[in-house]
């Protein structure tokens, strides 16, 4: 008889699944023609990124753990009272194709290219979709991915860190978390990933951890 994993086992499995999803994003980003996407809109970049992830998953050299992961581009989400085209759509959804209820990992992407990009990243159409339960309401973790199209990584990391610090109430930061910090991952290009915790007090869905990853699309003159 199939036995449900314990709570501790589920946490371990979830952590491994989430990390694998982020590895796929990082590897796929490196396979893109990043220079050509330096001014592209978010749906264009996301579509290319998802296609690159799918190519990895379906390649002859795919690793064994990739066999049970599916990736979706802009899928509609189930939300009470929202139907058809009125349903919110997450940018990227990973599905772990296991027996029974299938774990999902949701990613919202935002361009980082102008002064108000920080507002968009943390705003009602960005990170607050997780905080407010419109996205990933059933899951304990999700991710934000920033597409850097101006300046550089350190500049945007500082801007986002400052933006995060002044939005503690708005983002319903967990009481025992002063700020966002390193996710603690090493290798596979994940060393720079940050993590934040949000209480989701208004929705009663419990805490959610949000991972933050910045991907560079700034045009580099290689002549």
What can you see in these coordinates?
The protein contains five helices and seven strands; from the N terminus they run ααβββααβαβββ. By secondary structure, the protein is an alpha/beta fold. The chain has one domain. The protein has a seven-stranded mixed sheet. It is globular, with a radius of gyration of 17 Å.
In short:
The protein is 28% helix and 19% strand.
Which tags fit this structure?
223 residues; globular; 7-stranded mixed β-sheet; 5 helices; alpha/beta
Overall radius of gyration: 17 Å
**Mean of pLDDT:** 90
Low-confidence stretches: none
Count of individual beta strands:
7
What is this structure's SSE topology?
Layout: H1 7-30, H2 42-57, E1 69-73, E2 92-96, E3 104-112, H3 117-122, H4 128-131, E4 141-148, H5 153-165, E5 181-182, E6 194-198, E7 208-216
Parallel strand pairs: 3-4, 4-7
Antiparallel strand pairs: 1-2, 2-3, 5-6, 6-7
């Amino acid at each position: 008889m199939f036995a449900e994993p314990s709570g501790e086992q589920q946490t371990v499995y979830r952590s491994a699944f989430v990390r694998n999803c982020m590895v796929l994003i990082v590897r796929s980003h490196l396979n893109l023609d990043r220079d050509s996407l330096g001014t592209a809109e978010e749906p264009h970049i996301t579509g290319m990124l998802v296609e690159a992830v799918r190519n990895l998953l379906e390649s002859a050299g795919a690793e064994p753990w990739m066999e049970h992961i599916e990736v979706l581009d802009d899928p509609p989400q189930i939300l009470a009272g929202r139907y058809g085209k009125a349903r919110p759509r997450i940018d990227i959804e990973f599905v772990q194709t296991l027996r029974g209820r299938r774990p999902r990992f949701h990613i919202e992407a935002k361009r980082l290219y102008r002064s108000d990009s920080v507002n968009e990243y943390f705003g009602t159409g960005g990170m607050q979709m997780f905080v407010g339960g419109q996205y990933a309401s059933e899951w304990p973790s999700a991710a934000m991915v920033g597409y850097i199209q101006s300046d550089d990584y350190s500049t945007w990391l500082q801007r986002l860190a400052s933006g995060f610090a002044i939005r503690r109430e708005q983002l319903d930061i967990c009481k025992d978390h002063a700020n966002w910090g390193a996710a603690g991952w090493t290798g596979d290009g994940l060393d720079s990933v940050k993590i934040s915790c949000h209480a989701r007090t208004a929705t009663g869905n419990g805490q959610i951890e949000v991972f933050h990853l910045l991907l560079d699309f700034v045009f580099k003159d290689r002549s």
